[in-house]
Amino acid sequence: MTKIAVDVEGISVVLSNLEKVLYPEVGFTKGQVLDYYTRVAPVLLPHLAERAVTRKRYPDGVQGQVFFEKNAPRGTPPWVRTVNLPSPGSSKNRETIDYVVVQDLATLVWTANLASLELHTHMWRVDRDGPDLIVFDLDPGEPATIVECCQVAQLLRPLLEADGLSPLAKTSGSKGMQLYARADGFDSSEQTSAYAKGVAQRLEKEHPDLVVHRMTKSLRPGKVLVDWSQNSAAKTTVSVYSLRARPRPTVSTPITWEEVEGCRRADDLVFTSDDVLGRVARHGDLFAPLL
Q1: Which domain holds residue 36?
Q2: Do residues 173 and 232 share a domain?
């Protein structure tokens, strides 16, 4: 194993196997993963600040085994911030978990070096009670694609705005997309979940050929699941600017409402790491209003 120590803002971080290919279809290496996360850090880190991060690790690349890691791993450096939090519904029956909080570039580089390609966060911050975000996860059932998701997003937007929310859109980096808004006025995840479920049910009633609010697979072909349950305090959603473990290094990317309205093909809103860095250079952080 080839190792090298690098200085990251005054902290020595040990990197390994930078030449290892993690995306075999396009030859994208761990070194390129680290380069992406380092360059996108100025807009990514504010969205990870004060949030417990669940990492999806792919040590053998996107075609290998995945580790869904919540707890800080053995050997976590002392300079990595961890927060001990309750863990309701833990698959390993833990009462609490020592979550990693990615609060600086050194921690981001460290976790990327562990092949943590995907970063997932809750809708709440560790420094406050209750959620600060509300999310609507739009998941297409084949043969529906992100084109239909964009149609549903345009139906959701006026409903949310009528209730005083200001939704922003991002791709999931996979098949679907999400709408986020600040959860001002909500005191608990139970409230945001109940509100999101009500909106999803209303949309399904008004557009039964396009929308479904239940996860039952038999109901989903050709429709878009408006997944309201992601607002549960125990659930996480892929972070904005996170890579995804797809054949190519696609990214969960903020998009404008003009792009949502203009989506006509399934590949219209597919963005790789290079695309996203170019978009950030042109537009800045389109998700900044959520901060």
Answers
A1: 3-121
A2: yes
- Are 142 and 274 within one domain? yes
pTM: 0.96
Query: Which of 244, 243, 254 minimizes the C-alpha distance to 39?
Result: 243
154-195 pLDDT, tens digit each = 999 999 999 999 999 999 999 999 999 999 999 999 999 999
Q: What angle do CA 103, 100, 122 make, to 5 degrees?
A: 85
Residue position matching structure tokens 């999803």: 200
Whole-angstrom Cα Rg for the chain? 19
Closest CA to 181 of 194, 165, 192: 165
Q: For residue range 246-286, what is the model confidence (pLDDT) as tens digits? A: 999 999 999 999 999 999 999 999 999 999 999 999 999 99
Alpha-carbon distance of 173 to 21, in angstroms, equals 20
For residues 129 and 85, is the Cβ–Cβ distance under 8 A? Answer: no
CA-to-CA distance for 241 and 283, rounded, in angstroms?
A: 14
Place of tokens 């008004």: 206
Q: Using the CB atoms, write b or e for 79-111: b if 16+ within 10 Å.
A: ebbebeeebeeeeeeeeebbbbbbbbbbbbbbb
Q: Is residue 27 part of a domain?
A: yes
